[in-house]
Design brief:
Order of helices and strands: EHEEEHEEEEHEEEEHEHEHEEEHHEEH
CATH topology of the largest domain: FAD/NAD(P)-binding domain
CATH architecture of the largest domain: 3-Layer(bba) Sandwich
Number of domains: 2
CATH superfamily of the largest domain: FAD/NAD(P)-binding domain
Distance between the termini: 22 Å
Bound molecules: flavin-adenine dinucleotide
Strand content: 25-35%
Number of helices: 9
Length: about 375
């Protein structure tokens, strides 16, 4: 059995940022991640263009430095380049299949939506650089936490069903609250009120699916179009320009079909409908992408639970991040984005919740003695 001071469950942005902060403080920690890659909901598709590989976001795309100042500062300190979402030009509106889609004047969004050069994955990579790779362990799904005296036993399994057990003074849960309850068995049980609050917290964007089409040039811009579109026909309801600066051009859209509806269709069929829609909205060239990708987050067990099939979930208020009393008090702390008081569910929330969780560890370790 391996022992550590702090065990972090989840290697998305929140878990990696918590690891980065503990590393800076010279603390002992381990991070267990179930996927075989880092970043969690921050995921990208890679396309080679010229001599470079270009990454396109399949998860989050935007941040808003006007009010997400902590995240903006981290991005700046890490030396990452940013740029504004391309919005110049007309928006296309598709109301029905009868008649042509309408063109309307586009308006710049306010506050301005910013993107990171290299995609949001560049942020994950930069933060991971600040962690000891020996302490980050992937392919380990945590399925059981047992409170044992002043410590927690953490049971994990790899992709071949092989088990590992760790012992930690404290556990930071860097996985969404609803997923934590769904995937991890707590012995003794968590307080019923906390259990209920975590179960009722929707995982932001888990019910959604994103389609991305890559082209050699942003031909729509030459027609005075921004690449933005809204559609009441679908399958995509909202479309944006996803071009990489100095790289290939791209359009992406969020599908409006529900997760159960999508699960009954093949990926090829969905892609064909998306291509046909892009052709209706942006012309013949749009139906001929050089690459296309579809990421259905509702089908991803490392993000979504069956309760996330319903897209009605809104950014709610963050649930309590830890048990205030009982055997789990001072032992576990939620640090995934959904636990962020200000930006629950957002990228900025992952940074905020991880910061608060690591700050609380100092206080917690005193109280737990
Ligand atoms: C399609 C989409 C679009 C989005 N758009 C935006 C946007 O434009 N702007 C914005 O601010 N936010 C956006 N978001 C939200 C943003 O992605 C999240 O807020 C953020 O990435 C959450 O990071 P996290 O580390 O808290 O959680 P996650 O990224 O969910 O990380 C959790 C990690 O835990 C791992 N894990 C799960 N279960 C276990 C287990 N049992 N054991 C070990 N590891 C486990 C997972 O594999 C994952 O790596 C979007 C999300 C999606 C899906």
């Amino acid at each position: 059995m391996r022992t550590t001071e702090t065990l972090i469950v989840g290697g998305g942005l929140s878990g990696l940022y918590a690891a980065h902060l503990l590393q800076q403080q010279g603390k002992d920690y381990r991070l267990l991640e179930s996927r075989t890659g880092w970043g969690g909901r921050i995921a990208s598709a890679t396309v080679s263009g010229g001599i470079h590989n270009h990454r396109f976001d399949l998860g989050p795309t935007w941040f808003w430095p006007d009010f997400q100042t902590q995240l903006a500062q981290r991005i700046d300190e890490l030396g990452l380049e940013v740029f504004a979402q391309h919005e110049a030009g007309d928006t296309v509106i598709e109301r029905s299949l009868d008649g042509l889609p309408a063109r309307v004047r586009g308006y710049p969004s306010s506050p301005v939506s910013m993107r990171v050069v290299g995609g949001m994955t560049a942020l994950v990579d930069a933060i991971r650089q600040g962690c000891d790779p020996q302490r980050l362990i992937m392919g380990q799904t945590v399925h059981r936490l047992v409170q044992e005296g002043t410590q927690v036993e953490v049971h994990a399994q790899d992709g071949h069903g092989e088990s590992s057990v760790y012992r930690a003074d404290r556990v930071l849960l860097a996985i969404p609250p609803r997923l934590a309850i769904h995937r991890i068995h707590f012995t003794p049980e968590l307080p019923p009120g906390l259990l209920q609050a975590w179960r009722n917290t929707p995982t932001w964007m888990a019910p959604h699916s994103k389609y991305l089409a890559v082209y050699d040039t942003p031909f729509w811009r030459e027609q005075g179009l921004s690449g933005q579109a809204r559609s009441a026909v679908g399958p995509m309801v909202e479309i944006h320009d996803a071009s990489a600066p100095g790289g290939p051009a791209a359009l992406f859209g969020f599908l409006g079909l529900s997760a159960p509806h999508r699960s009954r269709m093949s990926e090829e069929t969905l892609k064909a409908h998306c291509r046909a829609q892009l052709e209706r909205l942006f012309g013949h060239q749009a139906g001929q992408p050089s690459h296309e990708f579809l990421k259905d987050w509702a089908q991803d067990p490392d993000t979504a639970t069956p309760a996330d099939a319903n897209a009605a979930g809104h950014h709610g208020t963050a649930p309590p991040s830890h048990p205030a009393e009982g055997p789990w008090a001072h032992r576990i702390w939620g640090v995934a984005s959904e636990w962020s008081p200000q930006f629950s569910g957002y990228v900025a929330g992952a940074i905020e919740a991880a910061t608060l969780g690591v700050q609380a560890l100092g206080v917690t370790s005193e109280a737990a003695r």
